[in-house]
Amino acid sequence: MAKRERRVGYGWPVLLAIGVHIATLMLTIIKWPESEPDPTSSSVVQAALVRAETATDQPQQTEDSAPPASQPEEEDAQEPEESAPAESSEEPAPDSDAEVTDSAVEEAKAEAQRLQEEAQRAAEKRRQAEAEAEKRRQAEAEAEKRRQAEAEAEKRRQAEAAAEKKRQAEAERKRQEEAEAEKKRQAEAAAEKKRQAEAEAERKRQAEAAAEKKRQAEAEAERKRQQALAERAAQANNSSLDSMISDEEQSIANAKQASEAANGFKNLVRRYVEQSWNVPSNASSELRAIVRIQLLPTGELVSATITQSSGNSAFDHSVISAVEKAAPFREMRELDASVRGRFREFNLDFNPEDIR
Amino acid sequence: MNDSMSIPHLIMNASLIVQLVMLLLLAASIASWIIIFQRSIALRRAEKSYRDFEDRFWSGVDLNELYRDLPAEQESLGAEHVFRSGFREFNRLMPKTQSTDAVLEGVQRGQRVALSREEDRLQLHLTFLATVASASPYIGLFGTVWGIMGSFQSLSMAQQATLSTVAPWIAEALVATAMGLFAAIPAVIFYNRLSAHAGRLLGKYENFAEEFHAILHRNLQGRSEREAS
């Protein structure tokens, strides 16, 4: 037996360990669902309790009230019996018969009074008990009412919380909608700005074209004047002063011609590029790209890069390929060295409207 | 609290790795509790049997008789084991040698072997408790970190991050840490308690061995003096 005691097996420890874990698991599981149906279950239980108390109270009260009613009768019945032995015991002394009877009567009266008092006291007690029971019942009813009110308040609070949540959700939705509307408005504003910028550019371009035309007209007029002057100079060939003046005027005309040539070169380049430009079919008139072109003095293309993208990559690509196709610009060699320097690097504006 | 935040619901909805971590922690917890119960019972019985044996030993019984009364097999444990191995050595050496020192040395050696065996037996599995105590919080933390990582990954998909979208994930992840602590705390407490208990018992065994050794020494001393006279 001693040996068996010393060896400690693992059966009991395993059972105990699993028991500990199941107990803790139960604690965690049971605790959670309990909190939820708390109000309903408690109210049901309390209602049942109240009914049970009232049901048991009434029989008790009737039982309480019954004995006092029967007791006086019994005591009444006992009274003659009691007085009879008293009379019988007092019979051996007939001398004091009247006194005895008197005292007996008095005793009986006192007895009756005592009984009455007792009855009154019992009635009093009964009334008090009833009042107490009544009070208790009222208190219970009040407690019940309070509990119901609390439950109702709880329900109302929950409903309010739900309404609050709904309102919050609605506010959230409204805020999102507003944010969307705001975004849309911003996008519209951006589009508007873009359109205005484009219109501005268009106007500028037109103004440039008008200025260009004016300048050409002026140059034409100047040339005519110079021809006239030259004719006049030829006519008045003998005057050295005249020749000096004409020299000066010629140099001015040369400068003018150079600028004209420069303009002409730019127009030429534009024309070449436009000719070799395959405008994408989906390109709208709103698209606009500015290309930076770098040229060698011989007119070879060094690079063409987009400085302001149109946003449409196909359009940008077509622009670049048009410039590459149009190069080289051999007319560059015919330009004056001073003018040529200006065209080593320049920007070209592309817009489908220019062609159509 | 709605139903989706209850602990079983959280465990069922956790990701696979977090669930594996939880399973590991549960297994560690069960194993450590098995050891806690087994060791507690074993140590209590060992202490009780030691007290019984000590009472018998000091009750003035003849040592030869006591030796014969004890179970003859290797089953004897605790102080009985120490006594048995010492006395057996004493009985074997007595007829063979006249030297008191040799006999006493043999007795001491036998007792030392028995004591080290007893130590081994008393501290069986206690290292496992220490391992659970130190490792399971880290395992739980790993589960939590993994769960929170997952929660942030899924949070990046969401349009807006309110507390109600983050909270369930984090609560789910924290269950792993809770389980780690649940496994670790009893393991720490009972490791300290049980190892202290085992150490105390071992000290008692050693004291007993010394006392027994003193008794044998006294007897031998008396005998050698008798022989000398």
TrEMBL record, chain B:
One of its GO terms (biological process) is protein import. Its main location: membrane. Pfam families: MotA_ExbB. It is found in: Cell inner membrane; Cell membrane. The chain crosses the membrane at residues 16-37, 126-149, 169-191. GO terms for cellular component: plasma membrane. Keywords: Cell cycle, Cell division, Cell inner membrane, Cell membrane, Membrane, Transmembrane, Transmembrane helix. Residues 80-206 form the MotA/TolQ/ExbB proton channel domain. It is a multi-pass membrane protein. Belongs to the ExbB/TolQ family. Part of the Tol-Pal system, which plays a role in outer membrane invagination during cell division and is important for maintaining outer membrane integrity. HAMAP family: TolQ. The Tol-Pal system is composed of five core proteins: the inner membrane proteins TolA, TolQ and TolR, the periplasmic protein TolB and the outer membrane protein Pal. They form a network linking the inner and outer membranes and the peptidoglycan layer. This is Tol-Pal system protein TolQ. The gene is tolQ.
